[in-house]
Design brief:
Length: 270
């Protein structure tokens, strides 16, 4: 891409980017109302303002008007696959049964990452129902240390992997509801972070090892996709997922506020 084309792509307006997404939704057989177009454009504008847009590979706004809209990602406009019939509810997201169903985003970090890198990763999930089980809300793994995953609540902790082994964080609340974020912003196991609703949590256990390359399995929602097998299914209701490069503390909080504003606009907030 030429430097001029690159600058044009980077400065494209939130309206233009939302229009591209709406066109992808139409190609998938769905529609986007004027009201929802405005909500998504407002979200994209806020993400651009915080700088997080440029560090994010993709967003899955599952609390959509239709299944086609829900499964069409915002940035890469990738069509995810709902596997084994999870339940879609308009303006709320997808609910999983905890045994067989999940969403395959089609996003494989080792293949599709643009912003994400081996030592700079971020992944997050927004849950609307807390199943109270030790299971994975979003994630993929190609080995113990090449993993991106979130277990939003394991007793009083969150267990997360940010292209590293599992780290645990003390939850500030006794629920998985809302947004759980994790990432890694350097080469060391101590470079991982975890946040709940945009506020950093206290790490209680460091990862055993850091991944030396990105996972080559696709990110799944409602389970962990590991070495070609779906496992650790979660009976949760998920409204939003995003992944990309590491976000700083200010961007993590801004992301939560931006996502919560979107959720509130469609009545999906918790």
């Amino acid at each position: 891409m030429s430097s001029i084309a690159s600058r044009m792509a980077k400065t494209a307006s939130p309206f233009a980017r939302t229009n591209l997404w709406a066109s992808a939704v139409a190609a998938a057989g769905g529609t986007v109302s004027a009201g929802r177009f405005s909500v998504v454009a407002t979200f994209i504008a806020a993400e651009m303002a915080s700088g997080a847009w440029w560090r994010t590979d993709d967003y899955q706004g599952l609390w959509a008007e239709s299944a086609a809209q829900s499964l069409t990602s915002i940035k890469q406009r990738r069509l995810a696959t709902a596997t084994n019939s999870p339940t879609f509810t308009a303006d709320r997201g997808y609910t999983f049964n905890g045994t067989t169903n999940y969403i395959d985003t089609g996003f494989t970090p080792g293949t599709h990452a643009v912003s994400m890198a081996t030592t700079s990763v971020h992944i997050e999930t927004y849950e609307r129902v807390d199943p109270g089980t030790n299971s994975v809300s979003v994630g993929c793994s190609s080995s113990g240390s090449r993993a991106l995953s979130i277990r939003p609540r394991v007793a009083g902790n969150a267990s997360v992997s940010a292209n590293a082994g599992a780290a645990t964080y003390t939850l500030p609340v006794s629920t998985s509801l809302g947004m759980t974020q994790t990432g890694r912003n350097g080469p060391l196991v101590t470079d991982v972070y975890g946040a709940k609703n945009g506020v950093d949590m206290t790490r209680t256990t460091d990862p055993a090892a850091a991944g030396a390359s990105l996972p080559v399995d696709p990110i799944a929602i409602g389970c962990l996709y590991s070495s070609g097998v779906a496992q650790s299914f979660r009976a949760a209701s998920v409204g939003f997922v995003a992944y990309g490069a590491a976000l700083n503390g200010t961007q993590r909080l801004a992301r939560y506020n931006n996502v919560q504003a979107w959720a509130t606009a469609v009545g999906a907030q918790v």
